[in-house]
Amino acid sequence: MSSTDILNLQSILDFIRSEYSGRDFIGLHEPLLDESDEEAVRACVRSTFVSSAGQHIGEFEREIEAWTGTKHAIATVNGTEALCLALLLAGVRAGDEIITQAATFAGTGNAVWRAGGRPAFVDVERSTLGMNPDALAAYLEEHAEFRGEETINASTGRRIAAVVPMHTFGHACRIAAIVDICNRYRIAVVEDAAESLGSYAHGKHTGTFGLLGILSFNGNKVITTGGGGMVLTDDDDLAARAKHLSTTARIAHCYEFVHDEPGFNMRMPNLNAALGMAQMKKLPKLIEAQRSLAAKYREFFRKAPWEFVDEPEGTQSNFWLNAVLMKDRAERDAFLEVSNSQKVMTRALWRPLHLLPMFSEDPRGDLPVTMDLYDRIVNIPSTIGGKI
Ligand SMILES: Cc1ncc(COP(=O)(O)O)c(C=O)c1O
Known about the structure:
- With 388 residues, the protein is of the alpha/beta class.
- It is 39% helix and 16% strand.
- It is built from eleven helices and 16 strands.
- Helix 2 runs antiparallel to helix 9 (270-302) and helix 4 packs across helix 5.
- Bound molecules: pyridoxal-5'-phosphate.
């Protein structure tokens, strides 16, 4: 890197510092927690209902149903478990293949593995950063074969049980096209909407297009419950089963303890749901603030030589994590070094899953866009705390 190049990169940091003036360390995405959150948690502690029983779990589920427009929301202990549960409910059995994108957080692949499946990876597209429907169609065209009621990957012999697209950094992928393709191949769609609470594709909330979808309320998300997740579905039977399986498969009874199948303890504690309820009150303002920060970045990068990742056409994004494309890997690394050394937290795109040791043997399509984005994307501070 020449000194002029470094000077240019410094202009991005100067802009970020001006947006977060008065801060020594600038985090990537810190939660916004205020007195109302403290009060909600304190009141829940006082009630003693801090664990798996309590009114806030149901209240939080109803709030998420109303917000997303889904018929059923089932709270879980985190997003990874929500995705594992959703895959099992979609019918995933041990050894099944689940097609997802290589450019995603490890949690997506881990949930596939936890559900007993094996991932297969297809490419993402630059316009959405999400799964490319054309890449999915090409992969299925090459490998999928109908055998009776099942869709089999003829190259591996595995049943293709689900497709898991992900809405990267809160930007909606071309989910309607993906659902169409999967319907043709009779494959269930389970949306990983962990990052996209408050994001819409053509006016419909992300996570509500597939048979099932999931959200995460990890501490770095738009709202947080400390740790938490949610399964979304319009299907009454799947919703009932999600509740049953995630709460130890216990038959409701006031004093008898009877469980009718092996179940999971994936429950979101009431304490976390109490925090979720307080956070939900701030959600409209938080999204407004995320979008207005993105507008400032958009304006800055319009006059700069780096491409800002904007919301795809026909979608409305929560802009959970803002992102910029550097010229190449060398410039990316220089920017990450210089920013983090100046206490401005930035990071690279997740290392694509097919490059991680546990997924390196799994099948994949061509991944040129994934690799290009991995070389060039940086995430820049998107914290809203102090901005509303
Ligand atoms: C794309 C994606 N999938 C899954 C997860 C897992 O969610 P959690 O951390 O709540 O388990 C996350 C976030 O953390 C995520 O970003």
